[in-house]
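A protein record in our archive is deliberately plain, so that people and models can read it alike. The record that follows is passed on verbatim for readers who wish to inspect the format.
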Amino acid sequence: MKFKVITENEFSEFSSKHEYESFMQTVELGNLKKELGNVVYYVGVSKSNKIVAATLLLEEKTIFDKKTFYAPRGFLIDYNDIEVLSFFTSELKKFIKEKKGFMLTIDPNVIYRVRTSDGELIDNDKVKNDLAISNLKSLGYKHFGFNKYLETIQVRWGYRLQLDKPYEEIKEHFSKSTRKNIDSCYKKGLLVRKGKIEDLPTMEEIFESTSRRKDFFFRSLEYYQKMYKHMKDLMTIYIAYLDPNVYLENTKKLLEEEKQKNIEIDKKIKSNCVGTKLLTQKETSDKLLLKYEEELVKAKKFKKDYPNGKDIAVLLSMKSGNEYLTLSSGTLEEYKNFTPKYALYDYHIKDAYKMGYKYVNFYGITGDFEKGNKYYGIYEFKKGFNGNVIELIGQFSLKITNFYDVYMTMKKIKNKIKKRRGCLKIK
C-alpha cells in the first residue's frame, strides 16, 4: 500500500463512486473552503495502483501557530477493513505532524442505526456499525460519544425518506396533517420556483430573519455568493412565493363556499330540532366566515402592495451521494401561517424522484424525541413525512502530538467560562 497526495480529478473520480459519498467530501466544498481561508489537501491510499481510501482534509490554524485538521464527514474508506484503516491512520499522523498539526477530527458518514419514525430501534444487526467504532478506537481515535443533541461539528441525527415507491403512494403514508398542509399551501396561492444567483440576497434575508427568530447561526451574503460560485452544481435554491391573484381568488372561493355551508346549516337549524352537533357546526362555520373575511382584506391589500407576488420562504438543497439533502430553510415571520415549508419540501421530494435519488435526507434532528425537547418542532415537522430516523456513528478525534492535551484542557476551561456567561459551548 502507498499513501500519497492525490489530484482533484483523482479524488473526484473516487469519491463520486464511494459508499460514503457526501457533498462535504467533494472538490467543490474544498474550493469553497480554500476561498474561506482553509488550506485544503486531498490524500489517499493506493493498492496495486488503485485508490482504496481517500479524504479531503481541511487545515486550520489555532494558537501558537499550531494547526488542527478536519475531514468533514470522515474518510472515504471501508472502516471494517482494519488493515487499510490502520495504514491510512498511521500515514495521516505523519503527514499532519509534518504540517505542524496536533489533532485530526472526523465525523464519518456511516450509519450506526436506523430507527422508526418514532425513534424506536429497529432490530437489524447489519446496520449497527460497532466494528467501525471499535476499529477506530483501537487505532487511538477518541469517540465523542453517542450524543443526542447538537454538541458536535456536524449533526449526528437525521431524518430520511426512502424513495422506493411512486410519489403518490409515498404521499399516502404522510401524516394526515402533513398532506393537508401540503395541499393547503397550493390552495392559498403558494408557488415554488428554483432560485438563481440573483436570488442570493433574498435567501440571505430570509435565513437571517429565521435565524434571529429561532436563535440559530446564520451566514452572510458574501458566504452564500462564494458558496454559489464553487458549489452551484451541487446546490439548488427553492423559493416559495405568494401569487397575489391566486391568493385573492382562492380566498374568495373559500369565503363563498363557507357562506353556502353556513346557509345550509341555518336551514337545518330552522327546520329541525337543534342538537349539540349542529350547534357546534354552526359555531365552527361562523368562526371560519370571520376568518375568511379577514383573510380577504389581507389578500386585497397584498395584491395592491405586491402585484407581482412576493418571496416568503426558501430551501437550500444539496446533492449528496445517493441522497438529496435539505440543508437549510427559512420563512419570513409575517407569512408563517401560509406554512410554505411544506410546499418547499414537497417540491424537493418530487425533484429527487426526477433526478433518480434513492433517498431524501431531511438532515438534522436531535436524538431526543420527547415533546419537552426545545428542538422537538424540527423533528415533529419531518416526522410527518413518515421516514426513518438515522443515527450516525459520531465524531472522533485523533491525537497527533502532545499539544492535543494542552489544547483540550484549554478548551474545557473556555467552555466552563462560556457556560457561566450563558453560552452553550465554543467551537
Notes: Confidence is low (pLDDT under 50) at residues 422-427. The first strand starts at residue 2 and ends at 5.
